C-alpha cells in the first residue's frame, strides 16, 4: 500500500472499438486505492458498445467522429475538464486497452510526492493478457528512429528493473502528467495522430526543463491493440507500420538539434534503404514499401518539419546537450544490425537443419529393407565412425577422399587461370577497375570506335557485382575459370541425388553420384570451352545443374513451393541467358513440349493456374530481367546478339559430331571420350525400371538437337566479321542429359536389391562400369597435363606505349590502327582508352559500320589529303599506326601528307604518325537514352522483387 497526500486527479480515458477490453479497464479504474476526483471519457466513433459501456460507468461520454486523432481526443478531454470547472492538478491518461492494477495510481502519486520536480510519470507496462511479459519501463528513441525500451525480447518481469529513474518519455497508456505542463506544451502533436506522440511529448518536455520518471511500482497491463493490428481504425488503416515509421522519423526531424539535422536527414535516408533491404530479405514487402512511403511523406513536406521545429524552439529551455543523455546511445543501432544479421544466419541454419532432418527421415523411411540387408559388420563400422571425430569420419569415407583429390587436381589443372587471362574468346579485363564495368553498364552511348548506341551485354551487370565483392575484374575471371569444376561438381551431385530417387526410393549409390558429378563437372574442360576462353559456355556449365534443380520444384505438391521454384528458376535462367541468349529459346521450346505432354497425361493441369503458372512465370520473367539489353538491341539493329554467346567473335564452330561428342574447336579432349558418354546414354534405355526417366533425358537431348539444328543453320554477317550462331550452351545441355541418362540406367543395372539377375547381366554391368569410370579419370588426367589452352595470349597490338598512355587520357585521343597491305586488303580498327576489353568487344562487333569514316580511311590509305587529316581530327584520332610489317606504299603516302607528323615506334617495321590538328573533344559523344535509364530502373526493381519472392514465406505471412 502507498500512502500519499491527497491531491486532485482527473482520469482521461480515450476509447475506440474497445468493447472487449473496456469492462476490465473500467473495473480497474474504479478499484483504484487512490481516489480519482473526475473521469473524462472520450469515445472516437466506436462501432461497438464502447460508448455505452463508458456512459453506464461514468455517466457522461464525449462522443467524437472516428477520424478524431488521439492528440485531438486528449485536447477535447482537457476542454471538457476546463468547462466543468474542476481544478485538478494531475491528469491520468488511459487507453481502452490499458488495465491498471488497483495500486497503480497510488504508486504514481507517491513517486510524485517523493520527487516534487517530476512533472510526467509513467507506470511499468506488462503484456495483456500474458500479464508477466514486460513491454516498457520508460522509452527513448535511437538515431535511426527505433523505439528503445532497454528490454530483451519476451523478457519476463522478475523485479529486475524496479527502480524509479529518469527517462526520456513514458507511454501514454497510464501516463500521469501535471495538467499545467500538459497545457503549456500544447498537448500532443497533431502530426502524430496515433503513434509516437509519447516519445515526442517526452522529448519536448525534457527540452522545456521538465522531468519524466518511470515508476515500476505502478503496473498497467497493455494489449497494444493498434500496434499489433488487433483492431483497425481510420487513422491506422491497413498500414500500421507506415504510421509508426512516419511518427519515428517525424519525431527525430522535429526535435533534433540544428547542428545534427543535416546529418540526420542523410542518415535516415540511407537507413531507410538498409531497412528496406532487411525487410525484403525476410520477404516483408509491405513493410519495405511502408518504409519508403514514410520517408517520402516527410521529405516531400519540409514545411511541416520546419513549423514543428519553430514551435519547439519557442518552448526550449535547456540545451540539446542536456537532453542527449536521455536518448539511446549512438552505438545501439549498430548492435541491432548485428543482431539482425545473426537472426538471419540462425534462421537460415535452422531451415537448412530442418530440410536435412526431413530428408534423413524420408530416406530412413524409404530404406528399411536396405538397412535390414546391410551386413552386421557394416553397422558396427558405422557406429564406430559416428563415435570418431570429424577428421576420422572424413578419412574413412572413400567418396569424400575421392572428391577432395578430384577438386585438388582440378585446381592444379586450372593453374593457368590464376594469372591474368586473355586469349581465345576472352578479351582482357578493364584496367580501370570495377568502375569501368559499372560505367559501361549504365551508359546508353559508348565512346567505342566512332561511338555506338548498341546496348551493353547483360552479363556485365553480374560481372560488376562480383568485381565489387572480389575487389577487381581480374579476380572475377580468375574465380570463374578456377571454380567452374568444383561448382559444377557440387551442382551435379545435388541434382543427381534428386533424380536418383526417381529410379528407386533409396536413391542412387554414392559412388554412382560421384561418377555422374565428376563426369559432368569436366564437361566445360574437356569440351575445349575452358581452354578457348569461352566463358559463356563455362558459366552455363556451372549454372545448368542448379537451374535444373530449381526447375524440379515445378513438380512439388505444394503450390507455394512451386511458385518459389518459379522465381528461383527465373533468376538462374536469366543469369544463364545473359551469357548465352539461346538458352532462353531452348527453355521456351522445352517448356512448350513438357506442357503439351502434361496436358495429355493430366488433363486437369491446364485448369490449375498453380500448375502451369510457375513455369510460365519463370520463362516470362527472363525478358523482363534482361529488358535493358533485349529491347535496345532490337531497336538499334543489334538483334543478332540474341543468337550469339558472350565473348569475342567469331564463336567456336560446332559440327554435328562435335555436338554429340561434346567438343568445341580444336582444344578439347579426344572426341571418342565424349562419344563413350553418348553410347552409355543409349544403353541406358535398355533397363525397364528406369526407362521413363531416361526417356525424359532423351527428350531434353532431342530438344537440344532440334534447337542446334535451327540455330546452327544461321550465319550472321556482321560489320566486323561473319560468324555462326553460338551453340556452346547446347553442347553442355546435351552432355548433361547424357550424364543423367547414363546415371539412371546404371542405377537400375547395378541395383543390389534386384533378385534373379543373370550372371551375364552382372558381367555386362561390370564391363560398362569399368568403361564409364575411364571417362572422368581420363578427362581429369588430360586437364591436369595442360598445354591445351590459349589463355596466355597477350593482347598486344604493336602500338607504342606512349600512344596507349595518351589514348587513356580521354576518349578523343583515339588511335587508328591499319593492318594488312594493298595487295591482300587493308583492315582498320580504332583504339580508345585501354583498348577493347571484356564487354566492349561485343558492342564493337555488333555496331554498324560508319561508312563515312570508312571512306575517309580508304582515301587516307590510297590518296591522302589534308582534308582527310582534318576529318581524322574531327573523329577524335590522334595517332595513325601501321603495325609491323607496314605496307611501304601506304607508309610513303602518309609520309607525304600534310598534317601528319611522323612519330616514333618501338619496332622499326611499325610506322606511326601523329595528327597535327586540334582534336574534337566531343568527337565520340552521343545522346543519352531515357528509355535505357527507365529499363535499368525496371530491371533493378524486378531483380529485387523476384529475389524476395524466392525467399520462403515468413511465419507471419503463413498465419
UniProtKB/TrEMBL annotation:
Residues 356-382 are annotated as: Disordered. Residues 364-373 have a biased composition (Low complexity). This is Glycosyltransferase family 2 protein. The keyword Transmembrane applies. Keywords: Membrane, Transmembrane, Transmembrane helix. The keyword Membrane applies. It comes from the Bacteria. InterPro entries: Glycosyltransf_2, Nucleotide-diphossugar_trans. The chain crosses the membrane at residues 399-418, 463-490, 511-530, 536-555, 567-600, 667-686, 693-714, 726-744, 764-785, 930-951.
